[in-house]
């Protein structure tokens, strides 16, 4: 498993006030009229968020409330809001399902170009009248919300589930196209019980430059294709799979540091 999905409940009965008001403004909007804006904001998010994958065409109908495959359909109960920055430009959008008076609302999506946009949208959601709880089944693991609340304990994690599994088919290509958080230079051996993706490569990455070339040298690190898939986005440490990772311990540590990013991976799109 490469990426988890975190489920949270947020208590809105007085514990969820923001310590400081975020900049910008928020306005309610018709979900069905946000297709172009949502597509634009998602494209920006997708380009910078590790672990995000692209969306099929039906997803816009899903978020617009016009899809007919949900049971029961939630089109009439779907709500949306847009955050505008100080210059009046839209830079965030939230979509949620309103279940009724004194029932939790379900956040379907909340993305923004920066923390201020995201917090502005959260401020609206946490202040909806007649609501004592906000639920989110795919909470951003790097969200600024808990730290921004007067009581961070208002955000309660109640679950963590499998979300994205990754099966790498072209190891050299996969290693070559991703960024690395620290310099690394080693020979990596990958085993594949299906015989599809195994081999040995020299991985050299430094200062934004990455070279991946086949190698006949003795490997510094050996691991399975399943471990590489789990750690590829930086959501897991190699040390979590100690029995299945062999080699020079210093090189394993260097590879671990290189694979981890500045933020945990997150994917807002479900299948």
List the helices and strands and how they pair.
Blueprint: E1 3-11, E2 25-29, H1 35-48, H2 58-64, E3 78-84, E4 90-97, E5 105-112, H3 115-125, E6 133-139, H4 145-148, E7 155-164, H5 171-177, E8 184-191, E9 199-206, E10 209-214, E11 221-224, H6 225-231, E12 245-247, H7 249-259
Parallel strand pairs: 5-6, 8-11
Antiparallel strand pairs: 1-6, 1-7, 2-3, 3-4, 4-5, 8-9, 9-10, 11-12
Q: Can you walk through the features of this model?
A:
The chain has 271 residues and is an alpha+beta fold. The protein is built from 7 helices and 12 strands. It has a 7-stranded mixed sheet. A 5-stranded mixed sheet has the order 10-9-8-11-12. A hairpin with a 5-residue loop joins strand 3 and strand 4 (90-97). The chain is elongated.
Please give a quick description of this structure.
This protein is of the alpha+beta class and 271 residues long.
Keywords:
single chain; 7-stranded mixed sheet; 23% helix; 271 residues; alpha+beta; 5-stranded mixed sheet
| Portion in helices | 10-25%
Structural class: alpha+beta
Supply Rg.
Answer: 21 Å
Largest sheet: 7 strands, mixed
